[in-house]
Amino acid sequence: MQRQSKEMRSLRKLCCCCFGAGRGKEEGMYHPLLPDEERQAINDLLQFFRTSVDIGQPSEEQMRSLLYVSYSERVDLQRTAGLCFAEISDRMRGEATMEMVEAVVSLLQIFDAEVQQASSLALSNLALKGPTANKKTIMQAGGLRPLISLLSSSNVDVQCNACGCITTLATSEANKRAIVEHGALRPLSRLAKSSDARVQRNAAGALLNVTHVASNREDMVRNGVVPVLVDLLNSQDRDVQYYTAAALSNIAVKEDHRAAIMAVSNGSVLQLLLNLLTSSSNKVKSQVCLAMRNLASDGTPGMFLKV
Questions:
Q1: Which of 46, 196, 244, 261 is least surrounded, with the fewest CB atoms within 10 Å of its CB?
Q2: pTM (2 decimals)?
């Protein structure tokens, strides 16, 4: 409801500015600040949010209005479009159309933090709350590359939304390899060190999700992701602890990868894993045990007893 109020305020502000201080050549003459098409699109969207108690799939007319403001060159209209998509995507449970997703993807690439924040939230909602088909549509619409670019944003909310969307996309087998091939490992590793708990949690979740592909695990070892994961075992966040232990467990299925894990800080991973066995979370302890089992699978006797 709070976000919907923000959309309403944004739309009303634009409506009030449709006729304003646009002074013409003749003294005392005023002209519309917005062209008729933009003014009509804003009025249609205002009516949509004013009358829709349960916002769902936009009608064709409403979608035309959304597309019009999305592809406008005015940043205030782009911001409004982003906010509208964020609200609609939060409530819509049906499949998103390609034209809707393409419009949201285009907004991701606008160099304005407010537009990026709203549009990245919209795309994350479509991936997380919508049907599985939405993930495929996002990938086909070219959403992955701008999402990865937004991982380097200086805006924490944009980082969180983009990272969360990539985490959700990485739950689909078809997307796991593409995410790594498009260069997501380094920015995700950087965000895994974030002081913002939401960003760190999403980044750790994304790194876990891509470990389910063998070639991704090779790239993670080669690109220095393992020390980042080992360090994350120090986190006080239970989700981060679980994601990290699971990721290390997956990486440790291969012998040379186990050696890479053990090489970090002279085998500090052993003590960190043992520390987590005192966790009050059963799922964390369970995953830690799996990681310990995989690390010990080379047959080194009593490796954890020596810690």
A1: 196
A2: 0.85
Q: What is the pLDDT of residues 105-161, one digit of tens each?
A: 999 999 999 999 999 999 999 999 999 999 999 999 999 999 999 999 999 999 999
Cα separation, 120 vs 85, in Å, equals 10
Sorting pLDDT into bands at 50, 70 and 90, what band is 1? very low
A 10 A CB-CB count for 267 gives 16
Distance of CA 15 to the CA centre of its chain: 32
Q: How would DSSP label each residue in the chain?
A: -HHHHHHHHHHHHHHHTSEEEEE-SSTT-EEESS-HHHHHHHHHHHHHHHH-SS--SPPHHHHHHHHHHHT-S-HHHHHHHHHHHHHHHHH--SPPPHHHHHHHHHHHTSS-HHHHHHHHHHHHHHHHHS-THHHHHHHHTT-HHHHHHHTT-S-HHHHHHHHHHHHHHTTSHHHHHHHHHTT-HHHHHHHTT-SSHHHHHHHHHHHHHHTTSHHHHHHHHHTTHHHHHHHHTT-S-HHHHHHHHHHHHHHTTSHHHHHHHHTGGGTHHHHHHHHHTT-S-HHHHHHHHHHHHHHTTT--TTTTTT-
pLDDT surpasses 90 at 300: no
When comparing pLDDT for 202 and 307, which is higher?
A: 202
Q: Tokens in use for 22?
A: 């646009």
